[in-house]
Write a structure and sequence with these properties.
alpha+beta, Jelly Rolls, globular
Length: 266
């Protein structure tokens, strides 16, 4: 893992929504180690979804066991579950968002409070009460409490994602590739835009209303970050290779309450 000042920007995309791709965060040995760890036969996944994606979800018992038993998994977890890292990626996206000359979304100006190691999927009474109180406090004080949610995933033949934007409580999304994937195998991250500015922004718009702007190929060590605004429509090409799997981490910085975005003309 590199010093934050040594992280390299691979590409900035202003339109249709701000995206920044980074590299040089983790070295090749670390990427290979986490990939090999996910291939171990004793790994317990939480879900098998979307036609061929196995996931270990942050906050689950499987996830806690995974990062406790594997130092490399804990290293990745701790890097992203960090206020300074969130601020770094978020502020960089805000800066390029200002340069967008088209219709754009900006998160309304609220104070952001970062909750480290917050999420739980066990739904204990204590956590439910704590969550409810924090949400109400956030609402009364007109601010956001955010936390890092993520999963370790392995995708095989058949996995794909239809065009969509993520849940309305997410502020910033990120996608880290642990291995590279050839274009003929599918699995590329697709960036969509609306053919015309819609009256409303659906979570799963019709594909006929969209155009693919760019397909980002999985490259080991590349981190894709983007604001999770209502127009951040994205998807994944169907994986068609029988033998090669795609190893990755997908995560978000998520608010306890719904994120509210303003749309404006730059």
């Amino acid at each position: 893992m590199q010093n934050i000042n040594e992280i390299k920007v691979v590409k900035e995309i202003l339109y249709p929504y701000p995206i920044i791709i980074y590299s040089n965060i983790f070295d090749n040995n670390q990427l290979q180690e986490i990939k090999d760890t996910l291939d171990q036969k004793n790994i317990n996944f939480d879900k098998n979804v979307m036609g061929g994606r196995k996931t270990i979800l942050k906050g689950s018992c499987n996830y806690l066991n995974f990062i406790e038993k594997n130092n490399i998994a804990n290293l990745f977890n701790n890097f992203f579950d960090n206020k300074n890292i969130f601020n770094y990626f978020y502020n960089n996206l805000l800066n390029i968002n200002k340069a967008n000359n088209n219709y754009k979304f900006s998160l309304i100006n609220k104070k952001i409070n970062f909750l480290e190691d917050y999420i739980s999927r066990e739904n204990s009474i204590y956590f439910k009460i704590k969550n409810k109180l924090l949400r109400e406090y956030s609402r009364l004080n007109n601010n956001y409490f955010i936390y890092c949610d993520l999963d370790f995933s392995v995708a095989a033949k058949g996995y794909k994602r239809e065009p969509h934007h993520d849940k309305n409580d997410r502020i910033l999304n990120f996608l880290l590739y642990f291995n590279s994937y050839e274009s003929q195998n599918g699995g590329g991250f697709q960036v969509f835009k609306y053919k015309k500015n819609p009256d409303s922004f659906l979570r799963q718009p019709k594909e006929s209303d969209l155009t693919i702007v760019e397909t980002i190929r999985p490259i080991a060590g590349n981190l894709v970050t983007f604001l999770s605004s209502p127009d951040s429509i994205h998807g994944v090409e169907k994986i068609v290779n029988d033998n090669e799997k795609r190893y990755f981490m997908y995560g978000s910085y998520t608010s306890l309450n719904e994120a509210i975005w303003n749309q404006s003309k730059a």
